[in-house]
From TrEMBL:
Species, as recorded: Favolaschia claudopus
Lineage: Eukaryota, Fungi, Dikarya, Basidiomycota, Agaricomycotina
Segments of this protein annotated with the region Disordered: 132-160
Polar residues bias: start-end ranges: 143-158
Domain of life of the native organism: Eukaryota
Ranges of residues in domain Glyoxalase-like: 6-73
Name of protein: Zn(2)-C6 fungal-type domain-containing protein
Pfam families: Glyoxalase_3
Amino acid sequence: MLTATLDHIVHLTPPGSLQETAEQFRKLGFNVVEGGVHADGLTENSLVILRDEVYLELISFTKPPEAYPPSSRPRREHGEALKWVITAPTKRNSILPFFCGDLTDRSRRSSYMDHPCGARGIAHIRLVTAEAENQRRHGEPPISSTSTETKWQPSTLNGPRPPTLILSTPSDQEQYDFVFGSAKTTGKGLFRLRSGKLFG
């Protein structure tokens, strides 16, 4: 069953590169705030929080992937623990997306902010797969479906225009190279994320 609400999107960076990645996002016109080092010491993150209350989590591992538990508790500067639980692909080095359930009360999270680039929300997320039949393995009905592309509209917590989740087979050489190149171990993966000016 497809998740009904888009909460946040994880952008993984190599160990020790979080500050560099945060600066790259600032140069693109995003305001970036420090999220802190997680209480278990395994990761640290920074956040790009959009007006639709979806946020991009820029995260960096501090240990090898196999050392990571399925749940963790980061602490904010004042010491309050934040909680969540995740599902993860079974294969190591996977580029497949995963689901994360935030167990922290919404009032305790950082609030959204405006960005110099004008981005106010997520416009669409595209997942590309080599298998067309994968488009028919979800319980929630799509808003449109063809032999090569299926679309859903998950909600956000604060947005008049919902983002579009697109699951498709390769439609050009770039996507074909992605699926049968960098994603060849899985035959599918997150291809593109686009933000947009969704408010007026």
